[in-house]
């Protein structure tokens, strides 16, 4: 399992480096990452395939909404050439294979907010100021989470039960 974690961290580091440096990532890293996520979840037994399908549906919904919004605003379907790269979409799909649904939504939301905040704060210091390295930022944040999972044995990325318990506590009052 440690070997799989190391391979995942290596791929995430490569995605982060390439996206920050070139604003482009080798396409084969995403299928490799997807396979490693499937292997990781297979070893841990934490996630089922129907949860993966729910997450993939969430990604499809996000992309559909973005496409519709972009088309209504600009009258064109070139979303992937200007604002959202195919690497970002492939990274969303890879993430869908790692997390259970609530954790996936939480990670997506938090990582998007952190990425936007980082970009706003540090834009003037970036060498390549064209676009936001979304997949790279999310890969970096995920690598930090995976490292914490390695360091702290009780840490897990499957926190749906904690989210549900927390919501039950809030609404039970």
Summarize the structure.
This protein has 173 residues and is mainly alpha-helical. 75% of the residues lie in helices and 0% in strands.
Task: Describe this entry's structure for a reader.
With 173 residues, the protein is an all-alpha fold. It has one domain. Helix content is 75%, strand content 0%. It has eight helices and no strands. The chain has helices at residues 2-22, 29-44, 49-74, 79-82, 86-96, 101-122, 134-151, 160-171.
- Gross morphology is globular
Number of self-contained structural domains: 1
Number of strands: 0
**Mean of all residue-level pLDDT scores:** 86
Question: What's the arrangement of secondary structure elements?
Answer:
Elements: H1 2-22, H2 29-44, H3 49-74, H4 79-82, H5 86-96, H6 101-122, H7 134-151, H8 160-171
């Amino acid at each position: 399992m440690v070997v799989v974690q190391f391979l995942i961290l290596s791929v995430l580091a490569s995605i982060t480096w390439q996206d920050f440096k070139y604003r482009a990532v080798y396409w084969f890293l995403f299928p490799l990452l997807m396979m490693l996520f499937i292997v990781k979840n297979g070893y841990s037994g934490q996630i089922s395939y129907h949860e993966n399908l729910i997450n993939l549906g969430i990604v499809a919904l996000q992309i559909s909404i973005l496409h519709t919004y972009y088309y209504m605003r600009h009258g064109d379907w070139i979303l992937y050439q200007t604002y959202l790269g195919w690497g970002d979409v492939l990274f969303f799909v890879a993430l869908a294979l790692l997390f259970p649904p609530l954790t996936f939504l939480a990670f997506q939301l938090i990582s998007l907010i952190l990425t936007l905040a980082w970009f706003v704060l540090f834009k003037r210091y970036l060498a390549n100021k064209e676009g936001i390295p979304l997949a790279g930022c999310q890969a970096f944040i995920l690598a930090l989470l995976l490292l914490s999972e390695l360091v702290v044995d009780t840490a897990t990325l499957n926190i749906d039960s904690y989210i549900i318990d927390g919501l039950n506590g809030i609404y039970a009052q």
